[in-house]
Write a structure and sequence with these properties.
Elements: H1 7-17, H2 34-45, H3 50-59, H4 65-75, H5 88-102, E1 110-115, H6 121-133, E2 137-143, H7 165-168, H8 173-176, E3 179-183, H9 186-189, E4 200-203, H10 209-220, E5 228-231, H11 240-252, E6 255-263, E7 266-273
Parallel strand pairs: 1-2, 1-4, 2-3, 4-5
Antiparallel strand pairs: 5-7, 6-7
């Protein structure tokens, strides 16, 4: 059975759903000067993360740093109150490369689900893991932000005018070939994906316990031994709903959970199906 959804039907649905969501979610003008974005970029990439270094070493894979930094400049360097941190891109790349190396090619390719696309940084990091490994696969990524309507994104590219996400990510055409962008609320769209198998998932949409568990159950019912789920923002005091959900998942005993804290504001959990 073909577990992959129709790319044509997904893109058609996405375009139709654009009309139901507001445009300009990040405002109607650039949030900062080009120089300010570059300053934040230099500050963010200068911070060491020995915990992530160790993960890459243990898994045997690391995303090429120049590729990571270029992608981060356009999709992760934003104006926000918390410190900028895009190390989940390294974690996702290394984890997925390890998964692809440890599992023989599957018919139709590997199927990956992401909730919470945002500007597309994590999606492209996973797509790069697919291309770098020479594997076949597709990433289904869901977000309420439109992929097809021009907007400002609170990033350095805003100084070139409004762009669609497709235009924002256009330098990464090879990686985009592996991605299906779906617009909508996660709960409303998951069942529409028609997936019967999910090999790898990154859950980073709504951060309530209820929402995380809803997404988890959907993925759990489509995974087998060795498959993986990566949870973002597993951070006590900031995202206690995510913490509670991950703790409950661990207590169920179906997954072995590895937690990773890289700062006071950012933590992750890697779940492997037993």
């Amino acid at each position: 059975m073909n577990t992959m959804p129709s790319l044509k039907s997904f893109l058609k649905d996405s375009i139709l759903r654009d009309r139901a969501f507001p445009v300009d979610p990040f405002g109607t003008a650039p949030q900062a000067s080009r120089e300010r974005y570059l300053q934040l970029y230099d500050e963010a990439r200068s911070v060491p993360y020995p915990e992530i270094d160790a993960v890459e070493k243990s898994l045997g894979y690391a995303i090429e740093r120049r590729e990571l930094e270029t992608l981060a400049l356009h999709t992760q360097i934003v104006i926000k109150k918390s410190k900028l941190n895009y190390q989940h891109g390294r974690l996702l790349y290394a984890s997925l490369r390890r998964y692809l190396a440890d599992h023989p090619p599957v018919k139709g390719g590997v199927t990956i689900l992401e909730t919470g696309t945002a500007r597309g940084f994590s999606t492209l990091c996973m797509a790069k893991a697919i291309t770098d490994s020479g594997a076949n696969g597709k990433i289904i990524t869901i977000d309420i932000l439109s992929h097809n309507i021009p907007m400002f994104w609170n990033c350095i590219d805003d100084h070139d005018g409004k762009k669609t996400r497709q235009e924002l990510l256009s330098p990464w055409q090879e990686e985009l070939n592996h991605i299906v962008f779906v617009q909508g609320w996660t709960k409303a769209q998951l069942e529409r994906t028609g997936l019967s198998r999910i090999h790898f998932a990154f859950l980073d949409a709504q951060h309530t316990k209820e929402d995380v568990l809803f997404e988890y159950v959907y993925v759990r019912d489509r995974q087998v031994t060795g498959d993986m789920i990566v949870f973002d923002d597993v951070t006590p005091g900031l995202f206690d709903g995510v913490i509670a959900a991950v703790n409950q998942i661990e207590s169920d005993g179906l997954y072995t959970i590895e937690r990773l804290t890289v700062s006071n504001e950012r933590g992750y959990a890697i779940a492997r199906r037993n």
